[in-house]
Amino acid sequence: MKKKHHHKKKPSFIKTWSAKLHLWFGLSVGLIVFIVSLSGTLYIFKDEIQNSIRKDAIYLKKETITQQPLSINLLREKVALEINEKYPVISVEIPLASNKSYQFLYYEKDKKGWNYFKEVLINKSVYVNQYTGEILAVYDEKYDFFTLLKYIHWGLLLNSDWGKYVVGIPVVLFIIMLITGIVLWWPNNKKARKSRLSFDWKNVKTWKRRNYDLHNVLGFYSSFIALILSVTGIYFAYPYVKNVFNFTLSGSVDLPKEKKIKSPDSLQTRNNSIFDLTAQETRKLYSGSSSFRIPLNGKNKKGKELENIPVSIYQEDGRFSVRNQLVFDKYSGKLLSNKPHQNLSNAEKYANANYDIHTGSYFGLFGKIIWFIAGLICTSLPVTGFLVWWGKRKKQGKKIIS
Q1: How is 14-75 classified by DSSP, letter by letter?
Q2: What is the DSSP annotation of 124-161?
Q3: C-alpha–C-alpha distance, residues 60 and 5, integer Å
Q4: Which residues pair with 295 in a beta bridge?
Q5: What's the pLDDT score for residue 296?
Q6: Backbone phi, then psi, for 336, in 5-degree steps?
Q7: What local confidence, expressed as pLDDT, does residue 394 receive?
Q8: What is the DSSP string of 68-92?
Q9: What residues pair up with 135 in beta bridges, in sequence order?
Q10: Contact 175/351 with Cβ under 8 angstroms?
Q11: Cys-Cys crosslink for 329: which of 15, 214, 272, 334, Cβ 3.0 to 4.6 Å?
Q12: Could you tell me the CA-to-CA distances from 314 to 6, 161, 310, 321, 341 in Å, in that order?
């Protein structure tokens, strides 16, 4: 009696092409994915680490705290005099907590610089005791470890205008790799699926099989968070991704444009206490918030002249998702607009929250821990994936049993 030969079922068209795309894209952008994943993962706990390292500059001594802080203009002039930079102070971040110091910021860019070090001319933080005027610490953020991680993650330390595409394109390919990876992982029956959800190394002796399982099992568990990380990442790089989010959330591809507001009683000369007036009003209206930022040089991030003084108010430390905004007349200090978070459109709320979702801070400390673990796995995937390919390459014709 002849034995029946059971021919192994050929992979479907979808799985065949998923395997090819997964391999081709993995070999082509694996190194960039490794660098971007590692730098992003190490950046996640930036706030917690920096706050600990800088606690002596952030928190004031009790004996120096009085009821009334010094004028913001006076503090700015003191900073400018002592730091002696050719660039102006651009803004001040003011905490609502009376025992925390003011943070004055320097930032200037040269858009023609081809890399990060040529593009960013200055990036400094100056912590000042607002009651005594004492400068507590000066940090050169341009060369700070976490700032460098951020710009490696953002554009491999290349010019920010086009460096984001050098990273963005591999991230798009990584999204395809994640999808094809899920397709390849997905077994044909429940029994096989169960075996791919955990490690069973009792009878496994070869490193190749262990490495394959690491890539397969950990890749599956991290893939869904990795998709969130990737999509929220390219949200920053590609306008059309923002447009899709905007249209989905609010029915329009564009965010509502800020209306030009002109105060009828705007003065010809600026009130010397203009910034103190804005700070006082902000404290009164948003006393339960964490901090707020006032621009001091009269320009926005793109270097254009501001018609008024926009004040951004942050509800919680280390989070940007709940953000309120006030607009003051730049001459008289009159309040022109109050735009609380709850009055924003869904698209505007998401635009504010995207950074927090990308870093995991949107979900608190627990979210950061999960994001950190997922980031470590994403960092390992190009390595374990390459070793899977290398093992097969060295032993062609032999397949790893799944």
Answers
A1: HHHHHHHHHHHHHHHHHHHHHHHHHHHHHHTTHHHHHHHHTHHHHBPPGGG--SSPPPHHHH
A2: EEEEE-TTT--EEEEEEGGG-HHHHHHHHHHHTTB-HH
A3: 80
A4: 91
A5: 94
A6: -105, -30
A7: 62
A8: SPPPHHHHHHHHHHHH--SSPEEEE
A9: 128
A10: no
A11: 334
A12: 65, 27, 13, 8, 10
346 token code pair: 């869904």
Please give the C-alpha separations between residue 382 and each of 31, 226, 229, 280, in angstroms, as whole numbers. Answer: 7, 13, 16, 52
Taking the model in full, what pTM does it have?
A: 0.90
CA distance 384 to 388: 6
Type of residue numbered 227: L
Q: Name the residue type at position 339.
A: K
Distance CA 240, CA 217 (A): 33
Query: Is residue 320 within 8 Å of residue 313, measured between CB atoms?
Result: no
Q: Name 299's bridge partners.
A: 305
- Answer whether 226's CB lies under 8 Å from 378's CB: yes
Task: Tell me the helix, strand and coil percentages in the chain, rounded to 5.
Answer: 55, 15, 30
For the chain, helix (H) and strand (E) counts, in that order, are 14, 8
Instruction: Return the amino acid letter for 143.
Output: Y
User: Which backbone phi and psi does 139 adopt, to 5 degrees?
Assistant: -115, 130
- Tell me if residue 301 falls in helix, strand or coil: coil
Is residue 282 within 8 A of residue 260, CB to CB? The reply is no
DSSP H helical segments within 84-159, as ranges?
116-119, 145-155
Single-letter amino acid code for the residue at 286: Y
* Cβ partners under 8 Å of residue 169, min gap 6: 29
Residue type for position 63: E
At position 318, the amino acid (one-letter code) is G
Structure-block tokens of residue 319: 């989070």
Q: Say whether pLDDT at 402 is over 60.
A: no
Phi, psi of 254, rounded to the nearest 5 degrees: -105, 145
- Segment 272-331, tens digit of pLDDT: 789 999 999 999 999 999 999 999 988 777 777 888 999 999 999 989 999 999 999 988
**pLDDT 10s digits, 48-89:** 999 999 999 999 999 999 989 999 999 999 999 999 999 999
